[in-house]
Amino acid sequence: GFCRVLRLLRDYDWINEPLIINFNHELTNEQIFEMQTQFKADRSNLPPLCLMPSVAFHD
Fold first, then answer.
1. CA-CA distances (angstroms) from residue 8 to 1, 2, 4, 22?
2. Distance CA 47, CA 57 (A)
3. Entry pTM
4. Per-position pLDDT tens, the chain of length 59
5. Alpha helices in the chain, H assignment, sequence order
6. Distance CA 21, CA 35 (A)
7. What is the C-alpha separation between 26 and 44, in angstroms, rounded?
8. Which residues, 6 or more positions from 22, have their beta carbon under 8 angstroms from its beta carbon?
């Protein structure tokens, strides 16, 4: 499992896609779409590696 996480971190398209972590499937498809849209709009102001946990979206 740990090696798969390392591979994900190495191979993920960090420039074009946020890594949205949907704990307990709390986010709806609409919320995920909104997060992706916001990420693309703000991409130039965000750090190179961007994790978006569902907890941050609800706060």
1. 11, 10, 6, 16
2. 17
3. 0.72
4. 999 999 999 999 999 998 888 888 888 999 999 999 999 999 999 888 877 777 665 55
5. 2-11, 29-42, 54-58
6. 11
7. 27
8. 32, 54
